[in-house]
Amino acid sequence: MRLSSSGGTIILMGEPSDLLIRIVGQGASWPPGFAVCMRDEASALAALTGARSVQMPLTALLALSRNLRLSPVLGPASGIEAVRLNAA
């Protein structure tokens, strides 16, 4: 499934229980600190510093609160290429 806006595209692949999420487009990248927030609730809470920075830690906190695992999928040279969402 592709979801597009003027800022880029989100690509969802897989099943609801094991989903791969990619973002593509000019300047598309996962925010700095996202990998730490994905695995640590305290880090995600600490990242809630203002209205412009709320989406990344909130996404991680929602997944953690529902016992879902967010895992970075690393690319060969570009850092986080996608995020995998599955049951913990």
Write the layout of secondary structure elements.
Blueprint: E1 2-5, E2 8-15, E3 18-24, H1 34-39, H2 41-46, H3 55-65, E4 68-74, E5 80-87
Antiparallel strand pairs: 1-2, 2-3, 3-5, 4-5
Structural summary, described in words:
This protein is of the alpha+beta class. The chain has one domain (2-87). Helix content is 26%, strand content 39%. The chain is built from three helices and five strands, in the order βββαααββ. It has a five-stranded antiparallel sheet with strand order 1-2-3-5-4.
The gist of it:
With about 90 residues, this protein is an alpha+beta fold. The chain has helices at about 35-40, 40-45, 55-65, and strands at about 1-5, 10-15, 20-25, 70-75, 80-85.
Our estimate of the beta-strand percent is 35-45%
| Cross-sheet strand order for the largest sheet | 1-2-3-5-4
Mean pLDDT: 87
Shape: globular
Give the topology string: H per helix, E per strand.
EEEHHHEE
Distance between the termini: 23 Å
Estimated structural class: alpha+beta
Alpha carbon gyration radius: 13 Å
If helices are DSSP runs of H or I spanning 4 or more residues, what is the number of helices? 3
The protein's oligomeric status is single chain
Measured as a percent range, the helix fraction is 25-40%
**Number of structural domains:** 1
Give the tally of β-strands: 5
Report the uncertain regions.
none
Q: Please describe the biggest sheet, giving its number of strands, its sense, and whether it closes into a barrel.
A: 5 strands, antiparallel
